[in-house]
Amino acid sequence: MGDQDWTEVVFHKQAPKKKPGQRQEQSVAQARQQGSAVETFRKVNAGSNRQKQGPRNTTQLDDIENQESVGYKGLPRDVCLRIQQGRAAKGWTQKEFAQHINEKANVVVEYENGSCIPNPQILNKMEKALGVRVRG
């Protein structure tokens, strides 16, 4: 026990560091008080972790706009009816049918109303689940 050092050790906290922009804000405020002209601007996405993110799904939006300008009206009515009849034959609700094909219930509603842009993968899922040829 003679090897122990019983002297007090005191740890001091470091003074908090000032933010890098704080000095600039002080100099801008001082310049404004003196009446000199100050021009400031804020950088877009400054201080965020976003890098080079533009609008999402721009190509999909462009495709939709192009189809609307051509006069695209959605799914043909006979395809919508086949989907509805196949689902009714299985005795499924729209929600149950959506769960069987791993899609949202909204997707099934849009396909049955004909208010969607047809996706061949989703149509294939529907055909397999219903056991009915939906297209052509």
Please tell me about this protein's structure.
- The chain is mostly helical and 136 residues long.
- It has helices at 20-34, 58-70, 77-90, 94-100, 105-113, 120-130.
- Helix 4 crosses helix 5 (105-113).
Essential attributes:
136 residues; mainly alpha; 51% helix; elongated
Distance between the termini: 93 Å
Shape: elongated
Q: Structural class of the secondary structure composition? A: mainly alpha
- Low-confidence parts: none
Helical stretch tally: 6
Radius of gyration: 32 Å
Strand coverage percent: under 5%
Mean pLDDT: 80
**Helicity level, as a percent range?**
40-55%
Query: Describe the biggest sheet?
Result: none
**Strand and helix order:** HHHHHH
Number of strands: 0
Question: What's the arrangement of secondary structure elements?
Answer:
Blueprint: H1 20-34, H2 58-70, H3 77-90, H4 94-100, H5 105-113, H6 120-130
Helix pairs in contact: 4-5
